[in-house]
Amino acid sequence: MNSEKIKKQALHFLKDWWCSLLLLPFIYETIHQIYWALRFNIFFMITYDFSFPVNIIYFLLDNFLLIVHEAGHTFFSLLGVRFITILGGSLFQILLPMAILFYTWVNRQKIGIQLSLTLVGLSWLGVAGYAADGGQQQLPLIGGLSKESHDWRNLLMDMNMIEFDLQFGIAFAIIGFLFYAAALITPLWFREYNKAEIELDI
Q: Strand, coil or helix: what is 138?
């Protein structure tokens, strides 16, 4: 009887937390990647050796976010402000996943919320690595553009804060970690409680 109760509890746990368990390897490895990139060498942003199948998932999401990033430059260039045009890439890279998160939140889609929270977290980590590279401009740019085209070099120089590139990277990474943490504990927000009516005759 006791083993049957444990089995039911285990099944109930898996029913609620299976997505969090599946996300753990991806979240762990992307956190490890950004830690190594910020702590040791920024090139871990492009050379980190992800395990299978995390490498495939990361490849797809990273390229999706790259497309979103470049689209952001185009969209925000319509405002005609150079600073906003440059910032637009990183900004849209955050805003689009946030829009997806908003949609899943409004529609109370638990798995969708977890996945979109993870995407937002990954977006922040990507921006973190790019910002931390602002001072050195070591990461290769799309299309073989010159170092002068580095978004965060230009943004930080415009703000006279180029020496704080690593601090920006760390701050953005922490925000990404918070979204990851929210993704993992999402099932707590959807916990269902059974109602019981107790009549007391006094």
A: coil
What is the spatial distance between Cα 153 and Cα 131, in angstroms, rounded to a whole number?
A: 8
Tally of CB atoms within 10 A around 129: 22
What residue segments make up the domains of the chain, in order of their start?
A: 51-188
| Residues of the chain by 3-state class (helix, strand, coil), percent to 5 | 75, 0, 25
pTM: 0.90
Secondary structure letter of residue 193 according to DSSP: -
The residue type found at 44 is F
Task: Return averaged pLDDT per consecutive 10 residues of the chain, 202 residues in all.
Answer: 74 87 97 97 96 97 97 96 97 98 95 97 98 95 88 96 97 98 93 56 56
Residue with tokens 């050379």: 47
